[in-house]
Structure formats: C-alpha cells, structure tokens
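thread: overnight batch results

M.L. [08:02]
morning all. the overnight job finished for the chain we discussed friday. pasting input first so we're all looking at the same thing
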Amino acid sequence: MINYREHIEIDANVRFGRPVIKGTRISVSEVLNWLANEMSIAEILEDYPQLKKEAIQSCLLYAADKEHNIRIAS
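M.L. [08:03]
and the structure it wrote out:
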C-alpha cells in the first residue's frame, strides 16, 4: 500500500503552503483536477515525466484521507 506522506509535502514557502508532490510545485489540487477532467494517469506522466505513478495515486489517497477526517455538521 502506498503511504501518501512519502510523496506529498506541505511547505509554507511552496505554493502558499498548499500540499504539493515532493520535489515539485505541482499541487495535489492540480492533479485531482486533471483526473476529474478525464486526464489519465498515463497522460499526466507523459506531460510531466518527472512524476511517478505513485505520486499521482498519493494525491488521491491524500484527498480521501482529508475527506475522511472532515467533521459532519449535525
């Protein structure tokens, strides 16, 4: 299983503290947007050869983890 913490970092000096793929300025939200707009992992890797498949999958895992931790209003 992939540990998203190995691929995602938050640094106040990079992209205003938004979560990004380590070693890049590519934000998790950008990757999620690409996937939501039907860009395949293969297409992302073709356009951004410095990325690894695990980093893209980590963006999905990061989003799932954050959604899981949102408190439900009651």
